[in-house]
Design goal:
The chain is an alpha+beta fold. The protein is built from eleven helices and nine strands.
């Protein structure tokens, strides 16, 4: 009996030893050596893994930075870490620092409770994605904010909240990192990442309704009616499908106030610093 136990132990021990040797040899042969620069860059990243850089996570972004040429590097940016982090990455790479204008998310909708009163009562799961599939919304606007807060729930940085008075989301620009979670979450594509110009100024059309003027105004007082008055202020303003769009290239510092004043419905938002001008 003792011989059987001893023999079994020897056999099992031998199998374990051989397996260990095989695993060691395989691990040596197929080992992946991590680039030192990848580890150095990864160490300075915020580890938010938000996807705002368009990569799966901070580690993948670190790899992209490590492998990028100087020309390719200027197109890489970590929205959470911002310019300070990218400056550190540039130092690790031995590249010159590239300044990038700060950006934030904006809501392209002025469909507040005052501008777009409820026409029907939605009685279902509190989810914009689900509501968008089964109805045109409580206000009748086919592209307006559904006011159910999917964007708020998906913001990792507590930069979004629903204003109890207006009923629509408000962006806290001190907290917004331009990660793009709200852009990806909103089923109606109402969020956009915009560049903050001189003194933090921005100007944009806060409407996505492509219905013709009278019908659009029926659903929302602040709807864009494509009257073309904004394009007379600046010819860069585009008007397509009954909807105006102000490109990021239009200087908010130079044209913002005039564009806002020219809009007869209040569809154009002009921001100066953290103050909102929504007349």
């Amino acid at each position: 009996m003792d011989d059987i136990v001893l023999y079994s132990m020897l056999v099992l021990g031998g199998i374990a030893f051989i397996s260990a040797v095989v695993l060691y040899l395989v691990s040596c042969k197929f080992a992946v050596t991590e680039d030192v620069k990848v580890m150095e860059i990864d160490a300075v990243l915020p580890q938010a893994n938000c996807g705002g850089c368009s990569y799966a996570g901070c580690h993948d972004f670190a790899k992209a930075c490590a492998n990028a040429s100087e020309n390719e590097f200027v197109n890489l940016f970590c929205p959470v870490g911002g310019q300070n982090v990218m400056n550190k990455v540039a130092e690790i790479k031995g590249f010159s620092k590239v300044e990038k204008a700060p950006t934030v998310a904006v809501l392209r909708c002025n469909g507040t409770c005052q501008n777009a009163p409820l026409k029907v009562q939605y009685d279902g799961i509190t989810s914009c994605r689900i509501a968008a599939r089964i109805s045109s919304g409580q206000t009748g606007c086919p592209t307006g904010c559904l006011r159910l807060g999917d964007c708020v729930q998906n913001c990792k940085f507590d930069a979004l909240s629903i204003d109890p008075t207006t009923g629509i989301p408000v962006v806290d620009y001190d907290k917004c990192t331009s990660c793009g979670a709200c852009v990806r979450t909103c089923p109606r594509g109402l969020f956009e990442i915009r560049t903050r110009g001189e003194n933090g100024k921005m100007v944009y059309v806060a409407c996505r309704n492509t219905q013709k003027g009278a019908l659009a105004r029926k659903n929302c007082k602040a709807a864009c009616i494509a009257c073309q008055k904004c394009s007379k202020v600046n010819p860069e303003v585009k008007i397509e499908n009954n909807l105006s769009y102000i490109p990021d290239s239009v200087s908010a510092a130079q044209y913002g106030e005039d564009l806002r004043a020219a809009c007869p419905t209040g569809a154009i938002n002009y921001y100066s610093a953290n103050e909102v001008k929504n007349d």
